[in-house]
Structures are given as structure tokens and as C-alpha cells.
Structure prediction request, 690 residues.
Amino acid sequence: MMLANDQDEEGLGSTAYNAEAGRVDVRFADSISLKTTALVIAASDKAGMKGAPRDRINEIIARESKGSLFMQRAHHLAEKDGEKIQSLLQRLNEKDDQSDNWRVSMCEDTIDPQLERYRSQRKKVSTRVVVDLDSFFISCHILDNPELDESPCCVGGPKMISTSNYKARRYGVRAAMPGFIGQVLVKELSGGSECLTFVKSDFKLYHSKSAEVKAILQEYDKTLKMCSLDEAYMDIESYLDAYFSITEGDRDHAAITKRMSNSDDDRPPLQEMASILEIKEVTKNLLHSIRKRVHRETGLTCSAGTASNFMIAKIASDMNKPNGQVFVGPSEEEIRTFLSPLSVRKVCGVGRILEKFLRATLGVVTVADLYAKRAEVNFLFKPATAQFLLRVSIGYSEDSRRESEGGERGDDESAQRKGMSGERTFQPTDTWSDLCVKLESIATRLAKDIQSKGLKPRTIGLKVKLANFNLLTRTNTRQVALFQQAGDGSTQTLVDIAVKLLRDVKRAFVEEHKDKAGFMVRLLGVRCSNFRLERETQPSILQFQKNACDVQLDQLEPGHPLETSAGLSSTRQRSPTVNPYRDSPKRPRQPSYQVSSCGVSDHTTKVHDAPKIARRDQLASLLEIASPQQHMWACPICQRQLPLYQNDRINSHVDACLSASKVKEVARQETVLADRKANRRKRGLDQFFN
Prediction:
């Protein structure tokens, strides 16, 4: 990232920390102007932008963005960031005043032992691979129209760019940039000799080509994860195991994949089957053959990075684009040599704000700086952020499938995924019906994606971005997760919750600003999170009926015909009369649970409740035989009779009765009736007698 105005990025934070004095110069933070802290989206580290005239690009972007609502908000956020930086610097100086050697003691007592444990857990071989398709969207279109590759082009339009080819990136054009700015960049930097070509997106084409690539890669790792249409995370250790377990003359792809399907758990570790150098050479050759095959069968090029974890592999996949690969060995020296000179912004999970804080407070620019200032990082930042940065400083990642945005994600998607979201940008509007229609479309599509992955969210969040780029959010957490089973009405529930959250956001905005016209929305988003792995059971009417049976049973007198016919009198225990003013005698405490055969306590069946449960079940069966009519349930909305023990049918019926369409229809009918009454002519006294 670069600064929008007169101070370049090298000046930011370069003198914030006085290494000799061991203190921070607070005046440095005061000298940072608000204009220079307003960053523009130039992403100088983007692949394909090496050698681009960065200063000139920033100058054009700042000029074209001047006075826009986006830049106004950027300056406003820069003010808040400056205040936070001041606070961090002040905390650090206060800590220095209290103790002179707190950094050394913190490193020796806490940080270094923890980092040493991380190092000991590091994977011994580099088999984690990240495959990244080069400029995927526009490359799919170039396959159909090769002439596009001869000039700067991008997928998108004047409002927003999805991706650009490498010729356009030489002029600073990149994803997430407004298209009109991209047009100006190409025109001015080329001296008017070239112009930017826009191509309309075609997601059907993208999904088709992505599926072709995935089918190829799955032959090398059946459990690979496509984290997006153009990015795959795979582990080729099983493939290499099979490769080295076959004699050299028989090592072809068909034999290796067959051996992979017949995996042997007693097979020795990979590092015992071959030397590190052999593994390195075979891995390089394998990746080269995979990339050639992808290009031969799909026409697309891809870049790849290989390392002992996905965090480093992700960085490596971006180092030799396009159509290249980078291998990072598993040893401590190889990892340190690769990571130390890199900017911290290269690490997935370090955004421009975190990078800005690290520079301004500690002068951290590279990963090597991050390790050198590990004590300050551990002291200043929140525990989760500090732990992530400390792991980054030594190149360690606790991933079993990938690590992204500062959090680990494993094979079990339900357990590791933090959330799923969908959002949509449109022309600013304050029309309530339009906003509800757009929100319903977003929520419905998100519900489909969630159901396809078998996830069950409990927390629903709403994101609202106004025309002035102010961001408003609301969340709602349910006791029972959505999407417990197919057809349970959760999609409509998700839509209803999202609309209610939008109504709450608008009401709060109007109350605060006293201006309905100011609620102009340009983006809506819905996010589902707080997933549950196992199906949660909602209290059903059947459970309430069982409770009712308990009550009826407790009210039966000894010798009651129903109790006698059920054979319950022998199991019924009459409690002795107890004086309420005297403490009851102490009795041996019995366990309220039984231990299952696997050694796990089962709290669902209590020992002292077993006779009661048996009596309840017998009573319920007698009631059902004696009077089936008592086991029908009347819907409180339409009064329809439904079988009490068909819980799914009852839930579906209630959802249908409570659906938005039914409610709207009832409201419309009531409105019509009210209008008729209001328009009905009043009868005069003469009409009354006539």
C-alpha cells in the first residue's frame, strides 16, 4: 500500500522507534498528517505490478479520488487510526518507564519457550501446495478471444474491476479498483497509445473451467480444498509416499494413484523413505508436470508454492507469477531465509491497517523486524492478534488444510469455518421495498450455499454500507441453529431475520441523525456464523405432551383404575410426609447419570428417573389407545387439527402459516375491510326508522 500524498511509504514509521534509546518518539505520531495516513488502494505488492511507476500511479488515484465520499471516509478513519496509534505509543512509553529490561524477561520467560514449542511441532517435509490460477477470470475469456491478450483488459466495468490481465497491471490496474480510474491510468501512463478494454463477467464459464482444474488436481490429493474458483490447497504427501514405495522402473501416474487408494498405515514416514534432497527434487518435478498438465488440458496457466505449511505455500505461490513455482524447504534456515526479507503485508492475514499500526508504532516493515520486536508485539496487541503475529515471525502455521485471514482452518469445514457471507453493491437507494428485495435475494443465495455444505449457523449478521461509505452492522444469535433439516423453513427464517435487522439498523440511524433521507444504502450483506456440528433439537410439542403425562401421573391416586391397569402401582413410591419447618434427613447421594460402555457420562437418562419414565411411557400409550382425539393438535392460526406426534409436519405447517405471504394477505384483507367500513355511509335517523 502507498500513501496518497506527499510522504511515501518508506517514511511512515521509519523513525517511530528509536532503537538506541529503546523508546518511542510520540512526536513522530503527531507529525503524521491525516492526509498522508489516508491510504489509496494501489496494492504495489500485487503480482504483475513489479516495475510499475508507483508514485505516478498514486498521484493519479489521489487526483481522481479527490473529494469523493470514499476519500472523505478514508480521512475520517485515518483520524481514528491516529488516535489509536497515539494510545499504543503512550502505553509503550509507560511500560518503558516502569521497567528497563521487560523485553528481555518477557522473551525469555514467555515468548521464546512458546516459539520453541512451535518450532518443534513443525512439519518435517514440504508437501503442502497452493495452486493459484493466473488472472483466472480474464484468462477464461482470452481462451475464447485471444485478441484480448494483446492489449490491457479486465473483467468488470467502469464502476468496479474483478481482475485484470498482466498488461493492464503494468499500468497499476488491479482488482477492486473502480474501472474509470483504471481507464485514466492506462490512458495517461501509455501516453494515449492504449486504452483499457472491459469484458463482461461470465460465472458459468468460470465455474466450468474451475471444475476442470479441480478434477486434475484431485488425482494428486483427493481431499484438496478449493478455497475459491482459482485457488486450491492440497497436500501431496500421500502421493509422494506412494511414489517412493514403488520400485523406480514402475513409477508411473496410474500405478501411483492405485497405490494411493490402497494406502498402508504401516508405511514408514516419508522422510524415512527418501532423503530431503530426493523429496525436494521429486516435488519440484511433480509440480512442474502438474502445471504443464493443467495448461495442456484446460489452456490455463497456474503458479504454485510448496512449503511445510499453507501459510508459507500461499506466499510462495505469489512469488513467481505468472506460470511459475517456488519451493521452500522445511528447515529452520530455509524458512528464515525465505520469510525474513519479505514485507509483513505479504502474509495472508496482515491487512493495510495492521501493517500501518506495525509501522507507525514499532517500525516493523519486514518479517525479520516482526521477530525482532516480538516482545513489543506481545505487549501491545490483543492476545489473538499477538499470537498470530508471533507465529508469522517464525513461519509457523497450525493448519491441517489452510490458514487464512489470521485464523487456522482444518479439514472439518463445520468445525473450522468461522462464517459464510454474501453481499451485493448497487446504486444508492433508500426505497424500502427495493432494499428488502435485494436483501431477500442475498439471504436466499446464502442459504443455498450453507445447505450445500451442511452447516448449521446460530448467529446471523447484517452489513449495511451507506452512500457515504459509513458501515452499520447488527447481529442476532438464536438458541437453536438454522438448517437443522431440509424443508424446515430456515431459508424464510433467515430472510425474516435479515429484514428485521435492517429495520433495526434504519430505526437506530433515524433516531440518531433525525434524517430519513440520509439512509441511502449502497451495499447490503448477510453473514452466518457460530456453526454447530451436531443437530440441535428444538423443544417439540411431543416433549410438552410427555411433561403433561408426568403431571397426570403424579395426580393419580393409589389404586386408580388407569394406574392399576398399567401395572404401575407396584412401581409407584409414596413420599413420606415431611415437616416443612424441619430439615430433611440426609440421604446418601446417588449419581444422576449412568456411565456408558465407552466411559463417557450419559446425562440423558437419570437413574432415579427410570421408574418415572417407564410409567410415563405406559401412561402415554394407554392415553393414545383410550382417546386418540386427545392426541390431535390445533394450529392457533388456522385451527387445523394435526397429529400431535408428527413434529416435523407441525413445524412445517406453522412455518407456512407464519410465512410472510400469509401475513401480508391477512393484513391486506383487514385493510380492505377497514376501508369498506370507513367508506360506508352513516345512516340517518330517518333511515333508521324507515
Observations:
- The two ends are 88 Å apart (CA to CA).
- Residues 69-98 form the longest helix (30 residues).
